[in-house]
Design brief:
two-stranded antiparallel sheet; 21% strand; 9 helices; 10 strands; globular; Rossmann fold; 285 residues; alpha/beta
């Protein structure tokens, strides 16, 4: 896949494109990942016009301006700006984890633009009881006041950064080995004197000011009008138990669930079977 870039209202967006001549697909990665998340599947997705974005603050895309918050509204705007820059009035969406949550919201908000949706390891968004709103708000505001003091760790080489990511445990059960993680790390660092630092914006680690309630998440999912394939890891991950992911999928007007062996990054662990399911779905099969 080749490097591409788009000028958006929020800043420059980077990405990777395979220049296929098939269905138009925007691919959205997970939290603290980047467009390289889709490289393992790329050999089996050559029949798609696949554009994998680095979401704002991730990979090689621009960071938001000082004082701005990384929110779903920012991500939705970035996705639509990228589609507009590509000249795509209608397109498919493919998302993993946080990217699948963002893709769910775009599909719900813009039924006239999204033809089909594949959501890997998330559908909708993580929900929280309304009674947690004040506590979350206080935690988020307090964290915002201290992030400026955070210093980036300098890694002497890429191998050291890979080992750090491997042992970070950001997503339990991700199942990624050093070889796959290296793809994400190589795109997710920038050179500085003495080595490398993460290129992602440190503000991405801040807690969000608000989360949707379960009722709001359900309403968003139920409004996704396009055909949707929800792909989940087997066994289910702790943050979205099997009963809950099946309940959510059942809310979709035109949805089905596919469970495949793997961990949270199953599209990188088992790229061929996941890519085959995606290609068939986007082909209308």
């Amino acid at each position: 896949m080749r490097e591409v870039g788009f000028d958006a209202a929020l800043g420059r967006l980077a990405g990777l494109r395979n220049d296929g001549r098939g269905p138009r697909v925007l691919a959205l990665h997970g939290w603290l990942d980047n467009a390289a998340s889709f490289l393992p599947m790329a050999p089996w997705l050559r029949d798609l016009d696949l554009v994998a974005l680095d979401l704002p603050g991730h990979g090689r895309s621009a960071h938001l301006s000082a004082g701005a918050e990384y929110s779903f509204s920012v991500a939705i705007a970035a996705v639509l700006d990228a589609a507009d820059a590509l000249g795509w009035d209608r397109f498919h969406l493919l998302g993993h984890s946080m990217g699948a949550g963002i893709a769910s919201l775009v599909a719900s908000a813009c039924p006239d633009r999204v033809e089909r949706l594949v959501a890997i390891e998330m559908l909708g968004a993580l929900a929280e009881p309304a009674t947690q709103a004040a506590a979350r708000l206080r935690e988020a505001v307090a964290a915002q006041r201290t992030i400026a003091d955070k210093r980036l760790r300098v890694f002497p080489d890429i191998d050291t950064a890979v080992r750090a990511r491997l042992h970070a445990g950001r997503v339990p059960g991700s199942g990624l080995d050093a070889e796959r993680l290296r793809l994400l790390v190589e795109r997710g660092v920038r050179a500085v004197p003495g080595g490398f630092v993460w290129s992602s914006d440190p503000r991405l680690t801040l807690p969000s000011l608000m989360r949707y309630t379960q009722a709001q998440v359900d309403d968003v999912i139920a409004a996704i009008a396009c055909p949707t394939l929800a792909v989940f890891a087997d066994p289910a991950q702790p943050y979205l138990p099997d009963e809950e992911r099946r309940r959510r999928t059942a809310l979709l007007p035109q949805g089905r669930l596919l469970a495949l062996p793997g961990g949270h990054h199953l599209h990188m662990q088992q790229p061929e079977p996941v890519a085959a399911a995606i290609a068939d779905f986007f082909a209308g099969e």
